[in-house]
Amino acid sequence: MITDKLTTKIVDHIKNNLFDSADIGLGGNSTNPTSNTLDVPLGLTLNPSNGGLTITSSSLNVLEVKVSVAGSSIQGKVIREVGLFDGSDMVYRINFDGVGPFSTTETLELFILLEVEWYGK
Q: Worst-scoring range by mean pLDDT, 29-43, 44-58, 88-102?
């Protein structure tokens, strides 16, 4: 049986070591699991040092990831995908119904909740 302590250690490891940047894109269809890029990436470098990526643990087994993009970087665009990266490796991607177009005075904030669960006997 997995213990609460191991769940916490897995969440902490993901939080502190796995996601170092994010990007958003215009593509909206499903991605091949072997893909290492978004379908139509904008090539933005969103990371903790520039305020574009915030990762917090909200409970024993849940991570909250916030991707924030200034409207000036996406003016007139409709965003349909977000990806989280570990170096050059895309480790998480989700597509969604398009949001936008954005003006320069707006900010896009995307919130991702990741839950670590164990399903065993």
A: 29-43
pLDDT higher than 60, residue 43: yes
Q: Helix or strand or coil: residue 59? A: coil
Burial of 30 (0-12, 13-18, 19+ CB in 10 A): exposed
Written as six digits, the tokens of 5 are: 């302590």
Report CA-CA distances (Å) from 88 to 27, 97, 117: 19, 26, 26
- Which of 77, 67, 66 is closest to 104 using CA atoms? 77
d(CA 87, CA 59): 26
**pLDDT, tens digit, 9 for 90 and up, residues 68-87:** 999 999 999 999 999 999 99
Q: How far apart (Å, rounded) are the C-alpha atoms in residues 23 and 67?
A: 8
Pick from 16, 83, 10, 18: which is nearest to 52 by CA?
83
